[in-house]
Structures are given as C-alpha cells and as structure tokens.
Task: structure prediction
Amino acid sequence: MTCEETQNLLDACVDGELDRSSTLAIESHLRGCPPCASALASIKQLVSALQKGSLRFSAPQHLKSAVLSGIERANPAVQRSQADWLWVGFAASIVVIVALSWLVAARTAKPSLETQLIGDIVSSHVRSLMANHLTDVSSSDNHNVKPWFADKLDYSPPATDLTAQGFPLLGGRMDYLQNRPVAALVYQRNKHLINFFVWPANESTPESQFALRGYNLMHWEKSGMTYWLISDLNPKELTECANLLKE
Result:
C-alpha cells in the first residue's frame, strides 16, 4: 500500500470503518513509514481532543439572549421553543467550525524535523544511485578517502574499509543534509549499495531504525557525531554493517 492510499484511508481506519484486510495493510505500512504514522497520530490527537470536550465552551447569557431576540424579530411567528432549538443549531455549528479548523491545522502542520531528515536521507541516497554521482573520490583505502575530505569539512569522517567482512568501501562524496555539508561514505554488499552519512550531532537522540519506500535506515550517535546508514539491503545484513562501523 502506498503513502497516498494509506493517508486517504486513515480517517476511516480511526473510525473503525475498514474491513480487516485493509486495516492490516495500513498497519503494515505504518510500521515502516514515519510520515504516515505521524499523520495518524495527528488524527488521533484530534479525536482525543474532541472526546475530552476541550473544544466546547459555554456562550455567555447575553450572547444567547441577543441571538434569540434576533431570531424572534426576524420571524415573529417563531415560538420561543423553536428559537431555542435554532440557538442549539447555531452553537453546534460553532463547535463544528472550530473542530474543522483544528483538523485543517493538524493536517497542514509541518512534519517533524526527524521526519524531514529521514525523507532527505532517502532522497540523497536515491539521487546518488540515479545521477551517476555515487562517489567523488573512489578508493577503498582510507588513506586516500579521509584526506580528500580534510579541506572540505570541519571534521574528519571515518573511512574504514570492511572488505574482509564483506562490505568493501567504494569511496566517498560530499552531500548536504540538515543545512550543512556532510560526508557520505559508500559501501557495497554484493549488488547492494550502502550510503553512510556522518556529521556532528546537534543534539542527542536515541538509536533508531526505519523503513521507508523500500529502503532500510539505521541511526546512532557516538562521540558527538551522528551516523545514518541507508540501503535496500535486508535489515539483518544492514545491522551487521552498522555493528562493524560502530566498532
């Protein structure tokens, strides 16, 4: 199931209107798609706010009296009891307007910084495969790769060759993430290419693992640096590569 298909069905999913197969398909997609999971969380937040009554309020008596008087002046034939029902409808419409405004705000809210970063990493990985720009420096020797970055970055990225462990280093290139130039080291596992992004950490975040658009991603931090690994390689072998790089 695609992101578009999933997000079109999220409201129905929250309301329990989908059959079991559709619900299972959405749940499977959400486990590997942070943006769609974030959209679902926003909808659930709206539902929770409505259930708690945080969007309800009591109109002041003078407003109610003014509305009822206006109804009676506009149509003298309307009985007081009928005017009361019209007031209820008016008040209900206010609640609906507020709720819809809240929903629009939730749906159009900017994605989290982490969600944006994950999307940017996937896009950078895909571009490197499509634009014939996988590496700027092609070498498995870290004595060639590390010096190449020396005059281009304000930090020294690792460039460990893992050929003996089955993950040969192909080289490196400059990339751009989180509004700054970053190092991208490129590894290979059989026919699968792996991008390894490295830059100084802005803030401490826990280790995490994601799957998005057919790609697996792993993230960790160490000694003030942040590391992101991405490939279409299966999670088990990508974890093996990550553990080797952590060492």
About this structure: Residues 80-108 form the longest helix (29 residues). The mean pLDDT is 80.
